[in-house]
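Lab meeting, action items carried over

1. Structure of the three-component assembly. Owner: GW. Status: complete.
Input record:
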Amino acid sequence: MAWRQVRRSGLTMPVVTRRFIDHAWRRGCDFINLDLEDSVPPHLKAHARSLIKGAIPVVRKGGAEAFTRINHDYVHADLEAIVWPGLSKVNYPKAESADEIRLLDAVITRLERERGIRPGTIEIGANIETAKGVAAAYEIASASSRVREFGGGSGYDMSRDLGVEMFVGFEQFAYGKGELELVARALGLQVRAAPFVANTTGSVSDADRAFREAQAARKCGFRLGGGLNPAVVEPQNRGFTPTAEDVEDARWVLERYRELTRTPDTWKVIDGRVIDGYEAARARDTLEWATLCAERDREKAAAVLRTRTAMAEPMSPASGVMRGDA
Amino acid sequence: MAILVRRSNLLVPITDTERVNRAWRSDADAVTLDLEDGVVQTRKAEARGLVKETIALTAKGGAEVFVRVNAALLHADLDASVWPGLRGIVLPRVESAADVAEATEQTTALERRRGLDVGALELIVLLETARAVWDIRSIITASPRITQVGLDESDLAGDLGITPLPEHDPFVYARGRLVVEATAARVQPIGITYPLGIHPRRLPAAEVHRMATDARNLGMKGVLCPDPSWVAPVNDAFTPSADLVAHHKRVREVFASAVAAGTAAVPLDGRMIDVPVDEWAKFVLAMAEACDARDAQKRAAHGGS
Amino acid sequence: MSARIRRSWLVVPISKPEEIARAARSAADVIVLDLVEFVAEEDKPGARGRVEAAIRTAQAGGAEVFAQVDRELFVADLHACAWPGLTGVIVSQLESAQQVADVDGLLADLEAKRGILPGTLEIVAGLETARGNQAAYDIGRASARIWGLTLGRADLIMDLRPEPSGEIHLMPYLMQRLIAVARALGAMAIGAWWRAPARGLLAGPDDTYQAARRGRAIGFTGSPCIDVLQVEPLNRGFTPDAAEVAAAQELMTAYRAAVARGVAVVEQGDSLVDRGSVTQARALLDRAAAYAARDREKAEMGARPPLARP
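Predicted assembly:
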């Protein structure tokens, strides 16, 4: 899998809430998802659309990518409002057919052309949130080359569609999650998945839990995070990034594997661990991911520095407080 | 669109007179008079002969009345069953859309011949092979008569070649596919949690309730009950409680005020109430209302008997 | 075609003749001569040349003989393996119906050229990639030779890793899906329900027995293994034990008595027994009898006792 964005953490926020947008760049997220959908009530949607263009550069000030979540039922109006330079991705909720995705692709293509955005830049996040979507998963995920990630299959909307309560302590969505993950892998897409961890509290702000979940997901090979509450951002960044020990360990495995290839054997057990081509591939993957994470972190740090520097001119002479930090 | 409330469907072998006579008092939403697995081969003809006169008795408590036919004796069993008062047919061993077509064709002809509303009889289909599970979409979309679909887990176990162990559910894929495909097709999936579906037992009500609740949280909308002792806990598990209703009414009130005040989300008891949470409250309240209505219907039927 | 008894599939590297001989003395139902996993790339040409003789060695103890071939190298590998005495091939990493058709066609040619009864060489389809699993149904029905489906080394090839629970991520789902597709096509599913860390190379006899038992509980009827010490646990894990046989017999007796009384639903304790349970019980008894017959047959041929406890 050659293409790999670093999207360990991200916040979905209603674009109409000014203070969220203004402070987004400080959160340390890899992406910000500007919401036009569920966190924006119907009577504010038109106003919300008018805010997106200006919000995109604001939320990117800390180096985060800018995404938008549009409304299933207002595709044309929403896309007109959101496809601007600086947007990386359009998240489309409750996708249920390939035709929907093809329509999005066509409109985005036209808008990219009209607005001077490099063709193919903007990705489509086809979010499966209903049983019908699961049933059509393969067609949906393969409907456009703008779909580069895929997975999911649980959450509020899926629960409502199936008529089930959430947070009941056992895996309720095994089939949907399995089907979506299989489709993602079969099409070579980045997989949005994680091992099942029982959650009976329904908390969306538990930092420890967020870290453990991110770590468990990373150990299974998954790297995509995101959420609603700022408290989970740093734990997700940390949980999805290989530690120094992980990197050391990966190097050890590769060394042992290099030694193995000089023998006629294809596998060996060393210190109770299997060393073979598969383990070597995983180790290489870990090192590559560690490098990508480090680069992303440097990128974000540089963006934050630039922003703080820019905000420091002009500075209030007496107080030393930077305007905008309040 | 009206919510179909059919939480408990009590399966009664039609040749078991005692059970048949008691069935109408069970408070089941539906009763299925069984001509199939509940009746020995040597008594199948006798069983057919009992259907017509048993329908009215079975409906006395307000239950819907179904008949489970034999796939191998479809023509004769349908002929014996399609009479006024019948709500529908439980069709086992459905393998293909063609099987559905055969049943609907004969049912339509009988409805016409006997002056019943053509197309009114429902079909509950039971899938018993891996093939049927794989082809479920074409099966359940083959006729608008199909309102519910379930797995016959015993026969499915045989087809999958499994020797089931209670601690390892072999139907996670099959059941999951049932729920997703049925929901997508707007047909209600029915069933209970493993291993009670494959090894039905008479258990304490609390345990049946727990398993029915888990089934509900998998997406099931009702349970085929092999024993009257299941009916009350199943009904209860599939009915929103008074507490839950009160809670969701509050959620709707609070959210409506928030919207009136111009905000998108509002905290209540430590949770954020936004559009999806309000939508869920709407759903639960609608379900509660529909259950109340059904219960009222049954009470009225009892009152009048 | 499906009634073969194939509980244990012992995979041996072609490059190690002493392992093949040892396999022939084991109680394995099937010996798999491997050209894929355990042969280094540069050794393959030499390995191919040894298959014909290896088939004869492997057959000596009464086991059936399969060869595990690389789909990408299927022309050379099938030419090397399709000799009288071979029962079939496991084809790694199949991803499309067309690939199956290609393999089927070549097997037909080789049968004709080498005096093998036409249509008898079987295929076990290795669905080891996401694409292969996604297309499982189309692959499985692409040839009448397909006897079974297997996930093979899917967990390694798809990079599926252990979850905190010990389950290998996505495998429980993939296994049940594979079994459903196999059965929908009238094919068998082979494999076992391995749990971390005891899979593949690190599975001891007890882990192997448990993996077989769990696998049987969801629909596998046999599994590949790579160590001769895993053979007996697999055979035992996939065979109904005495307690299960007794329970099934009891159930049948109770049901027959009820039917004689004109009743089709029986209460056994708090269990409600009907025709469905009885069908399962009968299938278990049939399977137990068939396995017992096969084991007696193998014992007579001089193999080690197949169900001996360690």
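2. GW to write a short summary for the group page. Key points so far: DSSP finds twelve helices and ten strands in chain B. Chain B has a mean pLDDT of 95.
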